[in-house]
Amino acid sequence: MSTDSAHTDTAETRLVDPIEQKEAFHRTESKIAVAGHPIHAMLVAFPIALTTCTLGADLLYWWTGDTFWARAALWASGAGFLFGVLAGIAGTVELLLVPGIRARSASWTHFIIAVMLLSILGANWGLRLTGYEQAVLPYGLLLSLFAVAFTGFTGWHGGKLVFEYQIGVSSTGS
């Protein structure tokens, strides 16, 4: 046997992912949707925006000293946490009900980072409930920075699910 034929890449010698070969792997249709649009995808925009707004309000309070910004950060952090919980519930139900989502490691990574993010958002809001003005510096601002960083990590993995694996993307074209 020549060395050329030993190194030839044929259909028999290619590695096959056994998980991808299962029929359920390709079942990625959303179970919680309105007119074909996944609710999780619709809800995540709110905690993303509100988390960013909390950081912005914290920075503006630090810069100006105006209590309006500390109060705005309190409301933004609370609303961001609550919308995050709603998005998390929808995402968790999708994860548990849709076999093609459950089979992908990126789904679980997204889930774990999102739960960590919700913990940070809840801590940030809880800290502010005891005195929103005193909570901003330094711990509120630090929690807001962590929250924005975790939002980026979570969004990266969520985007990977949508753009690489077509999770939540309608195959019917409607």
UniProtKB/TrEMBL annotation:
Organism annotation: Sphingomonas hankookensis
Lineage summary: Bacteria, Pseudomonadati, Pseudomonadota, Alphaproteobacteria, Sphingomonadales
Keyword Glycoprotein: no
Domain DUF2231, first and last residues per copy: 36-170
Record-annotated membrane-spanning stretches: 41-63, 75-96, 108-127, 139-156
Protein name: DUF2231 domain-containing protein
Alphabetic keyword roster: Membrane, Transmembrane, Transmembrane helix
Stored InterPro entries: DUF2231_TM, UCP029509
